[in-house]
Amino acid sequence: MRLSSTLLGVAAVLGAAEAQLRGFNYGANFLNNQAKVQNDFEYEFNKAKSLPGTSGWTSARLYTTIQHGTTKDPISAIPAAINTKTKLLLGLWASGTTAAAGQANINNEIAALKSAISKYGTKFTDLVVGISVGSEDLYRITPTGISNKAGAGAEPADLIKYIKQLRAAIKGTKLAGVPVGHVDTWTAYVNGTNAGVISNLDFLGVDAYPYFQTSMANSIGHANETFYSAYNQVKNVKAAKGKAIWITETGWPVSGPKENQAVASAANARIYWQDVACSLLAGKVNLFWYDLQEAQYGTPSPDFGIFGAGDLGTLKPRYSLSC
Ligand SMILES: *[C@@H]1O[C@H](CO)[C@@H](O)[C@H](O)[C@H]1NC(C)=O
Ligand SMILES: *[C@@H]1O[C@H](CO)[C@@H](O)[C@H](O)[C@H]1NC(C)=O
């Protein structure tokens, strides 16, 4: 990509002004579908802040702004973030089995967001570093997406509509200046059909998992190269025009099935951390790792958690987090 020197200058100034974000992805519910309450989120946010061998993991990415099991109550991660001084990349769930269902979700997400603004005021809004409209919605409407991940997605035109609705909803509020983005797989961004979505974003939230790239040589030895190839392909998409790229999900599983040549193990998760996490941190790229703990009880497969199942307070990381 070619940028004029003026643009590069502006980018450098903006980059320097913003500290790098380091965070994890936090679901609204446990593996058994039980809703997380404020205490649960505080427990997780505090654990992330005190990891051995690394520091600065004080940001949280949420998939939804709605408290699990309610129609449109604000998620209890918000008061937990206030109590633990955790920065928030908010998410609005944008997918539905029909476009009407997707729109109904977005209406509820925006209602929850507005309630949170009036309930918590600047204690909340000062912590918000970004808002993502949607999560992997474009991936889910592709042929591979449907076979890999059951569930509905959202068409590019609908996402654009939702992004505009969110921008209109935060206009004139304390969240007005917050960057608005979208999270999707890197493959969705390099797909030209989705260029219109990119044009409406302030930042591109990119999910990339070399472990799942089974049509390629995907052993751990190829993982760093595969990750950066994906990252650079998104960077070079014409519509991206040098917009900020945040890595919103990446990681390597500690246990789970072999995917083509990719072996899930703590040793390989450590290599992936050392190569990919450490280089992103050194490069000051905003990073939301997948994941701190995938499940408190039960064994997900694959399991990407730095911590396995059990009480986070007593668990030790399954691999070294030093760089
Ligand atoms: C490209 O994106 C469009 C719209 O989001 C989708 O329908 C299509 O399946 C995608 N193509 C591939 C190869 O994933
Ligand atoms: C990972 O890839 C990046 C980008 O190509 C490169 O700069 C870095 O040296 C690679 N790291 C390793 C450990 O191979």
Automatic annotation (TrEMBL):
One cellular component (GO) term of this entry: plasma membrane
Membrane topology value: Lipid-anchor; GPI-anchor
Stored Gene3D superfamilies: Glycosidases
EC number: 3.2.1.39
Domain of life: Eukaryota
Leading EC class: hydrolase
Chief location bin: membrane
GO molecular function, one term: glucan endo-1,3-beta-D-glucosidase activity
BP term (GO), one: polysaccharide catabolic process
Keyword vocabulary terms for this entry: Carbohydrate metabolism, Cell membrane, Cell wall, Cell wall biogenesis/degradation, Glycoprotein, GPI-anchor, Hydrolase, Lipoprotein, Membrane, Polysaccharide degradation, Secreted, Signal
Subcellular location per the Swiss-Prot or TrEMBL entry: Cell membrane; Secreted, Cell wall
Keyword RNA-binding appears in the UniProt entry: no
Database matches in Pfam families: Glyco_hydro_17
Signal peptide segment: 1-19
Catalysed reaction equations from the record: Hydrolysis of (1->3)-beta-D-glucosidic linkages in (1->3)-beta-D-glucans
Function: Glucanases play a role in cell expansion during growth, in cell-cell fusion during mating, and in spore release during sporulation. This enzyme may be involved in beta-glucan degradation and also function biosynthetically as a transglycosylase.
UniProt record similarity statement: Belongs to the glycosyl hydrolase 17 family.
PANTHER family hit by this protein: GLUCAN 1,3-BETA-GLUCOSIDASE (PTHR16631), GLUCAN ENDO-1,3-BETA-GLUCOSIDASE EGLC-RELATED (PTHR16631:SF13)
Annotated protein name in UniProt: Probable glucan endo-1,3-beta-glucosidase eglC
